[in-house]
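Fold this complex.
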Amino acid sequence: MLSYIRSELFRFFHNKKLYLLIGSLAVLIAAMVSALVFFEKTQVFLNATTAFALGAEYKSMHYLLVLILVLSMYLDDNEHRQHTMKHSAAFGISRGTIYLARYLSQLIAAAVIYILMNILLTGLSSAFLQHSNVGEGAELLRAMAAGLPLFLAALAVSHCFLMNVESQTSAATLAISVILVLPSIMNLLGKRLDLIKELAYWHPYNLAAPFADMENQVMELTWNAAGGMGHCYLSGIVCTLIFTAAGLSAFRRREIR
Amino acid sequence: MSNRILTVENITQRYGQTLALDDVSICLRQGQIYGLVGNNGAGKTTLMRLITGQTPIQKGEIGLFGCRTAREIRAMRRRTGALIEAPGFFDDMTAEQNLEYFRLQFGIKEKKVVRDTLEKAGLSDTRGKRYKNFSLGMKQRLGIGLALLNTPEFLILDEPINGLDPAGIVEIRNMLLEIHRSGATILITSHILSELSNVATHYGFLSRGRLLEQVSAGELSDKCSTYLDIAVDDVRKMAELMKEKLHLSRFEVAGDGHIYLYERMEEASAINREAVLEGLKLRSIENHSIGLEDYYMNLIGGACHA
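Structure:
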């Protein structure tokens, strides 16, 4: 398992497309901070603060789940076209090791990239924006902690399809359907059926998205609500286990070409 | 020569309604170079995929180095090297990076093995060139290099000389013979049967998923050595004579006044005599050799026996 993870990390390290993705994310972060600085200098603008900049990230955790899917495609590097896994199987590496090692390697890479991007965001915000000092740093850390199991789940969904569907485009479509389309449908049906509404609440995408607190007329985050952090972990872990078990079971039976 | 390296027992494999392999059994012993001969769709690659664990087995059993359980076989696969169909590598990485990826994955300690393998495969001067810019022959060489990365005792090669130029083919042939001399056992397929006959010590003939025959190179050489080409004015009458009076069955009636006889070639004079007694005019009787290709075609029924 460790040998396989080492080889995968070696591959990520030499994947130019991955550097391009990381560079693009870094440019986006820098562009957001630059825009805030620019607006502050040219007009009366109250949002050029660290609270706004960091909030833009932790209030958009549901979009990061979709970003995880994109990242996982980059990390997979189109195995369906390159057919490298057949050499691993021919060398006697078990299907379980291949499946889990690739998942764990992607998880390590995703975690490193996520932490690096957050360091960049926090660093640039602290250097160029007004310090709000309203606990935005702690809020970001709390969001990261709550987001961890949800990211695990998104990665498990994506990995399940990437390892078992014979086309990256089809795998991506299926993963996006589960992460993005399914909760939207459940939310719509939930307006009519209470059971579906209850189920929809537990979907990782819905747990990561801010919701309206009608009483206080504000947008609230699940992990700040009572029991919310626990719900994120429960949903993330259950979803990860279901998709990992299903993906692994299918992968054991499929032909590696 | 008695150590069994690979045993395939009663393997049957289906893809939907298609029977890819039908009750196939083969046995490879240490030191053999086993050439698997078959046309497209015969089941060669399917069999190799089963042996290398790429495809789960539906029915039958495989044994590797005397081991039979799934766990043991997986462990034994570390003593094998394989190249099945086109090699699979990462497009954006160089030959060295691709081999380093697999060296790390296979847990091979010596870093030097990557450079040595590149040299052995004739790719040591590719340096910064990415795999996607490789020619077909270079890709094939890298695939063979990967199969040799762990110095295997058993080498499984599916069409290894695909895309190689004549010099490359000779080079790979010599490499295989050298590996064989060092004690390795080799299972190999190739569409270029003349090339296969340069290296193989044993043959298995597959057609439509069935193993038709297994022979040693010596036995095959005896069987292929000659056939009698009989040129006669009335082939129908001659065929009847051969069947009824001379009790010959393994012959082929060609449409151009020729009959090809594959058995009892030493009885040419007796055949001549009988033909003359029957009033047939023989234009010639000649001995010919047949190649591996013709032998296979006869075996699968490409020729029409009278």
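The mean pLDDT of chain B is 87.
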